[in-house]
Amino acid sequence: MIEEIYKASEHRYENGMQFRRSGRSGILLPELSLGMWQNFGETSPLDRSKEILRFAFDHGITSFDLANNYGPGYGTAEETFGYVFEKSFRPYRDEMFIASKAGYDMWPGPYGNWGSRKYLMASINQSLKRTKLDYFDIFYSHRYDPETPLEETLQALVDIVRMGKALYIGISRWPLDALKFAFEYLGERDTPCLLFQDRLNLIDRHVENSGILECVKNSGCGFIGFSPLAQGVLTNRYLKGIPNDSRAVQQRFLKTSQINETLVENVRKLNEIAAQRGQTLAQMALSWVLAHQGVTSLIVGCSSTAQLNDSLQAVKSKDFTAEELRDIDDIASNIKL
Ligand SMILES: NC(=O)c1ccc[n+]([C@@H]2O[C@H](COP(=O)([O-])OP(=O)(O)OC[C@H]3O[C@@H](n4cnc5c(N)ncnc54)[C@H](OP(=O)(O)O)[C@@H]3O)[C@@H](O)[C@H]2O)c1
User: Fold this and answer.
1) Does the pTM exceed 0.90?
2) What is the CATH number of domain 19-240+288-314?
3) Coil, strand, or helix at residue 285?
4) Ligand 1 pocket check: which of 237, 286, 296 to mutate, most ligand atoms within 8 Å of Cβ?
5) How far is the CA of 204 from the centre of ligand 1 (A)?
6) For the segment 223-249, what is each residue's pLDDT rounded down to a tens digit?
């Protein structure tokens, strides 16, 4: 079957998406980025993945977040992206900001995991092949490696930029002390860290409480938050039971045992506040993170264009009253995942 030719919406930058500067840099990112951790691998319908990716770009989402191990099926989310890139996105490459990462278990043996130069260099080459890209806009160390000297990991990232395989460097989920070291090391080599990536949502506020967010902001680095919807918990997804097609049913990173009565009761209370604000719960959860100082973009996941369309409306209403914030804090503090 011959596939129809994709032409991006002429209104892609007029659909309400707003852009924020990433730290002290020339890069503007959309308030919402699309993440391909789940739902874009070999177990998901390719047509649906293609539809979501196109819908995202048509609505001002220029930023796409990948990693070598995203799928499920390691490497298969990158393959999906490569397929869509080749068929639809290639003419728009210069309008896109595409990320990949290495740091987690990817291939067998001692060189397919953690933070060695050997692993990072091999991994980015593989990721470029799978995505059919000539370069990534940003390449991240996906996690802190307590065994490899930080200088080795960081120098590999610097060299990746110098070799033209990525334009910028990012760091994900490093602890504060290692992050401070990284900012200094990278700054001294004229390849400052563009983005720090970590989880931030109504339930998980560790980057706020540990001083990481503040340090990132003060260092002139951008912050991009992942799992802003707590993998779907902070949406209407589980308010009436556990749907068969939901992430919890897959029992991987979110388990049905975590969706207990107390959790649902508190999520319902948050849903009521959202309704009073004229938002869905997903929209309120996203607005809440976007209201934080120092946040550049949020990486949302989704399993349909309808979900993404719903999430996109969050950018319209980012003001909260002091009373709303207090009530949200009280309720969210009772939710444990
Ligand atoms: N650096 C890291 O270590 C790291 C770790 C995790 C994630 N990430 C990045 O962050 C991205 C996002 O993570 P995430 O997928 O956990 O994000 P999330 O946005 O918190 O959760 C996405 C899930 O929420 C549900 N959902 C989304 N929009 C909805 C809506 N409007 N209404 C109802 N339900 C909705 C869907 O669940 P169903 O699938 O059940 O429909 C969707 O799969 C990843 O793809 C990845 O790029 C990075």
Assistant:
1) yes
2) 3.20.20.100
3) helix
4) 237
5) 14
6) 999 999 999 999 999 999 999 999 999
